[in-house]
Write a structure and sequence with these properties.
About 20% of the residues lie in helices and about 35% in strands. It contains one helix and four strands; from the N terminus they run ββββα. β2 and β3 form a beta hairpin.
Length: about 60
């Protein structure tokens, strides 16, 4: 089965711009950068949700 990667509508369409892509496969959430597609981070829905909630609350704003 081929993995169906998704990226945010906020990501640029230009191939030179990097974006973060997400997919679900075998019960895991997969993450990769479009410019390094061979490096895949695997996580769970629970851990991803905790990260996204923290990001929404500004916990990681100092990294951007």
């Amino acid at each position: 089965m081929e993995i169906q990667w998704r990226k945010s509508s906020k990501s640029a369409d230009d191939e030179a711009d990097s974006c973060l892509e997400l997919a679900e496969h075998d019960g895991e959430i997969l993450m990769r950068e479009s410019d390094h597609p061979g490096v895949v981070i695997r996580t769970t829905r629970v851990k991803l949700r905790a990260f996204l909630e923290g990001a929404k609350e500004g916990e990681f704003d100092n990294f951007a």
